Amino acid sequence: MGHRYTKVTPITDDGVYDKHLSISHQPGTNRAVQHLHPCDETPVRAERGGGDRRGVCGGEELEEKGGGGEERGDRELKEASRVQEKRKRGKWWRRLISILTPAKKPLPESPSCQQCNEGEQMKVAWARKSSDDYIFSHYTIGDKLGKGGFGVVYEGKRLEDGLKVAVKYVTKGQDTECISIPDHPNPLPKEIALTILANKGPSDPHIIKLLDWQDHEDHYVLILECPSPCENLEEFLYHRGGTLDENTTRHIMEQAIHAADLCCQRGVFHRDVKLENLLINKETSEVKLIDFGCADILKKSSYKTYDGTDAYAPPEYKLKGKYYGKPATVFSLGMVMFALLCGHFPTHYDIFQLKYKRYTYIQPSRSKDCCGLLRELLNPHYSERISLSQILSHNWFKVYI
Ligand SMILES: Nc1ncnc2c1ncn2[C@@H]1O[C@H](COP(=O)(O)OP(=O)(O)O)[C@@H](O)[C@H]1O
Ligand SMILES: [Mg+2]
């Protein structure tokens, strides 16, 4: 499988929303922007101890209030003792809570130095675990569900009602972009912003829901719905022996295509539709599109840098260095469908055979309609590729069992 690039093209001229660089915060202020409510509400600044602006780690620094000399010294002294008092009360209160509530499962231990990045993330999480406004204090953290380019995803439980959730912790890098979206006063990391936008409108079962989130200076956290029991399509395929039959593939593809199309209708270009980013519920076979970490605002003009997974990159990007959102989405859906049916990604030679309708070369047992759709999805010429909105009208989907 390919890897993910980290560079993102800034949204320019025809992007719908303002472009912002990563939020640049002043040292000594609480940088958390949190959201503990339905995901399309306005986030509020996370505040500790009744709204004091304090240092990020442990609330050690005092509020800076201007003024000078003795008066200021006095004020600081009073403030210091007030903070001390509050901290003592906090500790007492926390001790009581820790006695009364069942022990939370601790965050996983920092792994070996081969996984320093992940270890660092968890150390930060651990250090802030005791803070009541930190998002982790509302959830217990369980086993690791997965790990991608930047994020680590853990199974979790919402303390309030025991709901099973997925907790995604993402370390911010230099390339982490923030954008502004309607109804949110502060720019948000793109992944959060685009997950919110993809969920705007009537709830859709095929797009993962964002239940909660929090943004910090060096990382952000997403609390996502967690279908159960589920696995991603790569795992599902592996457990099914490496290939799927046409009916199973059709059922999965219908849902994946619907999700990708709906994202585009909502102005979101997912850009990383792939096996690992599609979850399937093993009992109901319901499929959900996850991971908006490579997503961008859908625009009409071309994209000139690719932020996604190499193996799924459209040929027009490899040949000409540019591509369009919807045709690229169609190509990635073709890669998913081919992988599900054949157990590997198509080679150039496979795509060549499809082009000339030598279908038996691809898979002798697959129907003509099935290979015909693969041919349309994987057309190397993006302008001749089937359009995203037409895919579900293809003959292959007109099957009545
Ligand atoms: N909401 C979720 N429910 C269950 N498993 C999930 C969920 N989100 C992610 N995962 C698992 O974690 C893996 C990595 O998550 P993903 O969001 O794709 O992270 P990355 O951005 O690092 O690729 C997925 O392939 C999937 O197996
Ligand atoms: Mg992923």
UniProtKB/TrEMBL annotation:
GO terms for molecular function: ATP binding; protein serine/threonine kinase activity. The lineage of its organism: Eukaryota, Metazoa, Chordata, Craniata, Vertebrata. The keyword Kinase applies. Pfam families: Pkinase (PF00069). It comes from the Eukaryota. The gene is LOC108181140. Keywords: ATP-binding, Kinase, Nucleotide-binding, Serine/threonine-protein kinase, Transferase. Belongs to the protein kinase superfamily. CAMK Ser/Thr protein kinase family. PIM subfamily. The keyword ATP-binding applies. CDD domains: STKc_PIM. It comes from Danio rerio. This is non-specific serine/threonine protein kinase. Its EC number is 2.7.11.1.
